[in-house]
Amino acid sequence: MFDTIVQILCQIKEDPSLRERLALETDLNNEVGLDSLQMLNFMVKVEEELKIEIDYDEFDYLHLRSIGTFIDFLNRCAPVEGAYEHAVE
Description:
Elements: H1 2-13, H2 36-50, E1 52-53, H3 67-74, E2 78-79, H4 83-88
Antiparallel strand pairs: 1-2
Pfam families: PP-binding
Organism: Paenibacillus oleatilyticus
Protein name: Acyl carrier protein
């Protein structure tokens, strides 16, 4: 999951060299520097790529204090219904 998140961040920031500076401890709020539109695109892309549905009622700004914290939150998110059905086809 870490690799997928890093890949998404590099795409959104349009900076492949960002990969070298990212670690589980990297603060998504203060170190990556996503503006509001980039953050929205990041969240949508994470849902698409990981085939999960982020519960925005449970989501908190604190979940972005590190990539590791964000991954912990994502692990508690529900898979998108039908995601596995389409994978089998």
